[in-house]
Design brief:
The chain has 25 helices and 16 strands. It is of the alpha/beta class and 632 residues long. The protein is 61% helix and 14% strand.
């Protein structure tokens, strides 16, 4: 029971008791008996009906996704406890003695027992189950309502009033007290109804309109836009990596972040529109337009507002959000069309390395449909081993010998043709296939390395890139251990490459995962070094073996003295941390010469060798193998 209800019922009780005492002062004992009976029965029946209504509302909220299963079970247990209380104790005897009340309570208990298993297995997506429960509850809701009505206005109440009619001042003050208390109760019900309505149409965490209310708002805005011939913009907002924040920093931090984001969205849109939360970290902003250009400007303002640091008790977060925008009537005239196109635009913003804000364009749906078709084909390709690995050698720059090979994924689909590696990886990560794809690549690369070892290249190592998805789910070490066991490969010949961003999300978790891999004997390389956010302390904490200098730095070696200084610093840093350095993207002889002069140990790139099929790699290994031993 909330504070407001408690205060309201207390006021009702005091007013009712005072009016009764004043009217029945000539027979105080009778007045007390009548007052106590009415209060006990009325309060109990009112509370019973209230608990039934709350349980019914909890089922409605579960279907609307504004409440979870835990809340439904809580209301169920409170309702059951209320009925069991009424069936026990001397103080509740007047309630049970009301005509027809005891059988109803006993039948209700039996029904609750029958519902128990269904309630504790009920899920929000089980709309049929929720509807069935509400229909079965309707009978008892009506009965409890009748009990409540009878206890306040039934024959028994009027008989009790007749007993006091001949007392001093007659029944005027008593009736006045009843009318006043009834008015207060009506006020309480009205306010409770308003509160329930607000809860049904608003998000409980941010107080923003929820998905249900959003559709109503959109309908109103579309009608207004059609009537006034005014444009409308729908901005779909999605936070980047919100799940990682929840997992690493806790749900309290995540909730604080969502509340701050909702506040910034409201403040930014101001009187120009509405903000709603569709669920999770997904928000939508409805903007009334004076001109189409206003939509792009507002999207930029929203992005800038959301990107400001969020201060927390233990530090601050720098959130990033992707925004997709669609326009009425240019991109659609209905809510589903505008929402779908805004979501498509947001999808492209989320997977773009440059733009955090994206306006919907014709053709985006086709490209997104292609990605979805690719995902289906990719799943089949993984299951049927239709993917292939090419290998690019990594050379020792001082001797020209091959130190290792990097496994690179290739896919030629009969339906889609040759799919670029970047698109392939993006499709896998966007459609939940990254984990399976990583496992497939890891297994195939280890099997092939084992064959090369058997062919006499026992010194050779293989580098495998690890997706953030498999790295951050905590199962990487288990997967690698199983692959090594299945292939019989020596762990010291496997090198796993991770990016800086992968290890930065959860430093402590990264250290634990990498340390577990190192204990297996595996080498760890930090890929694309220099493009992420690693600090020196971060590098010092992580148990790494190698750094791979990103090709963007190597490309500028022959033209930019600052690039030379930067690469020299990276090499010196790696040496101080007992790590080897691999330079990526060597395409010119002068780049190779400069790297050798700076003391870089390893290198790869098109100048040295391009990625090649297994057969060509085997031939190159044979040639390089003889060369190594001739120069040894």
């Amino acid at each position: 029971m909330n504070t407001f209800k408690l205060i309201g019922l207390t006021v009702i009780t005091l007013l009712f008791g005072a009016s009764s005492l004043y009217s029945y002062n000539r027979d105080l004992e009778v007045v007390r008996f009548v007052s106590a009976t009415i209060k006990t029965v009325g309060w109990a029946s009112s509370e019973l009906e209230t608990e039934v209504l709350k349980f019914d509302h909890a089922l409605t909220s579960l279907a609307a996704h504004t409440a979870d299963e835990k809340y439904v079970r809580l209301r169920f247990e409170l309702l059951w406890g209320r009925i069991e209380t009424l069936l026990q104790g001397e103080e509740n005897r007047p309630v049970r003695e009301q005509p027809g009340v005891l059988p109803i309570l006993e039948n209700f208990v039996q029904q609750l027992q029958a519902w128990e298993e269904r309630i504790y297995t009920l899920r929000a997506d089980d709309r049929a189950g929720i509807l069935a429960l509400r229909q079965e509850l309707a009978h008892f809701r009506q009965q409890t309502r009748e009990i409540n009505v009878d206890n306040f206005s039934g024959d028994n109440v009027w008989r009790q009033l007749d007993v006091t009619q001949n007392l001093r001042l007659h029944s005027s003050l008593y009736l006045g007290g009843l009318l006043l208390s009834g008015g207060i109760m009506l006020l309480l019900l009205v306010r409770e109804n308003r509160r329930n309505r607000h809860m049904a149409y608003h998000d409980t965490l941010t107080s923003l309109p929820n998905r249900m209310f959003f559709y109503q708002l959109m309908s109103q805005e579309l009608k207004r836009g059609q009537r006034d011939r005014r444009g409308l913009a729908v901005h779909m907002v999605d936070l980047n990596s919100f799940k990682s924040i929840n997992d690493s920093l806790g749900h309290e931090v995540g909730d604080s972040l969502l509340r701050e984001i909702s506040s910034r969205l409201r403040n930014t849109i101001g009187t120009q529109g509405q903000v709603a939360r569709l669920g999770g970290d997904e928000f939508v902003v409805i903007q009334r337009l004076e001109s189409p250009e206003d939509a792009g400007q507002m999207a930029e303002l929203l992005s800038q507002s959301l990107s400001r640091d969020v201060r927390l008790p233990d530090g601050c977060l720098s959130p990033q959000a992707c925004i997709g925008t669609s326009l009425y009537p240019d991109h659609g005239t209905t809510t589903p069309e505008l929402l779908s196109h805004a979501d498509t635009a947001m999808y492209y913003a989320k997977h773009s390395r440059k733009n955090m804000v994206q306006m919907f364009e014709s053709g985006m749906d086709e490209r997104r449909l292609r990605r979805q078709k690719l995902a289906v084909s990719l799943q089949a390709a993984i299951e049927q081993d239709q993917l292939v690995l090419h290998y690019q050698p990594i050379f020792r720059l001082d001797s020209g010998g091959i130190e290792s090979v990097e496994a690179l994924l290739r896919w030629h689909s009969e339906e889609h043709g040759t799919v670029s590696p970047l698109e392939l990886i993006a499709v896998a990560e966007q459609h939940g296939l990254a984990h399976r794809l990583n496992e497939w690549v890891l297994l195939q690369a280890c099997r092939q390395l084992n064959r090369w070892h058997q062919d006499g290249f026992g010194w050779l190592k293989v580098n495998v890139n690890i997706s953030p998805n498999i790295f951050m789910d905590g199962e990487l070490a288990i997967t690698v251990r199983q692959v090594l066991h299945d292939t019989g490969l020596d762990a010291s010949t496997l090198v796993l490459e991770i990016t800086e961003d992968t290890s930065m999300w959860d430093t402590m978790g990264s250290i634990d995962t990498l340390q577990e891999l190192r204990e297996l004997g595996i080498e760890i390389a930090l890929d694309d070094f220099g493009t992420g956010y690693s600090s020196f302390s971060h590098l010092r904490q992580l148990p790494l073996n190698k750094l791979k200098i990103d090709k963007s730095f190597v490309a500028d070696l022959s033209t930019d003295p600052r690039a030379v200084s930067l690469v020299k610093t990276i090499i010196s840093l790696a040496e101080s941390l007992d790590m080897s350095v691999t330079a990526e993207g060597i395409e010119l002889p002068e780049q190779q010469a400069q790297l050798q002069l700076l003391g870089c140990q390893l290198g790869q790139g098109y100048l040295l060798a391009r990625p090649m099929p297994v057969e060509d790699m085997s031939d190159l290994l044979s040639q390089n193998h003889h060369y190594r031993f001739r120069t040894a």
